[in-house]
User: Fold this.
Amino acid sequence: MTETAPSWLAAADPRGLRRPPPPATPAVLALDVGLAYREGAGQCRALDGVRLALRAPGFVGIAGPSGSGKSSLLYVLAGLKRPTSGRVLALGCDLGRLSATERCALRRRHFGFVFQQPFLVHYLTAAENVLVGAVRPDRAARRRAEATLSRLGLQRFAGRLPHELSGGQRQRVAAARALMNEPALLFADEPTASLDHASGAELMGLLHEYRQARGALLAVVSHDETVIAGADAVVRMWDGRLRAIEAATPPPEI
Ligand code: ADP
Ligand code: MG
Assistant:
């Protein structure tokens, strides 16, 4: 991954810190992160002592068996879950030191998420569903929502309800919702797991197109090695720990 800090890092601090960080500053940094869930009288350690630096621009894959902590790691890095120990810094902000409002504002403005299921609002059109992701749903946001749908090849479907779309189209609407604020950090948890291979490949192609055009970080959890092939780094999880970090995985032979 390149060591050059993209210009968007400078504008990312919600408290208005404008000075760009030194070039080697990672976009996301996990310092001894632990996440424990209460389980009966005991605890389940979903994450245990995870140290990780993700740089932008870049593409990082997160792999591992079911229950190894992949989703937990992604959600902690993305500020969707608070670690029970350790710290996460994203875009120069210590997520644990932000208020809930500041954390929410940072996420909404600079982070994008794509989940396994599109989670669309069933009574809103595709365009309205994209607008749900807007920082402020004003006229400019409406135009941006439509432009993002077009960029993802959904111009003709903007007025359709989710049940009038195919599974692949619904997931592309969810991706448009994630991309409409042009996030610096894009997180995806098994984004292709509910799609056929062609729709999954198409979705990943669009996420990569965005990543490259924006100079963003794309972090993807997947069981499917073809989805994370070509990543700058693959994080292998095992029982809540980092088992290995593999750099620059070559695409598999066909
Ligand atoms: P993966 O995404 O690799 O399948 P997860 O991060 O979802 O793994 O889960 C890691 C561990 O944490 C698993 O043992 C899982 O059962 C447990 N876990 C995840 N979410 C919860 C929760 N909300 N409550 C209790 N345990 C959980
Ligand atoms: Mg998971």
User: Anything to note?
Assistant: The radius of gyration is 18 Å. Strands lie at 28-39, 42-54, 58-63, 85-90, 93-94, 111-114, 185-189, 217-221, 233-238, 241-247. DSSP finds seven helices and ten strands in the chain.
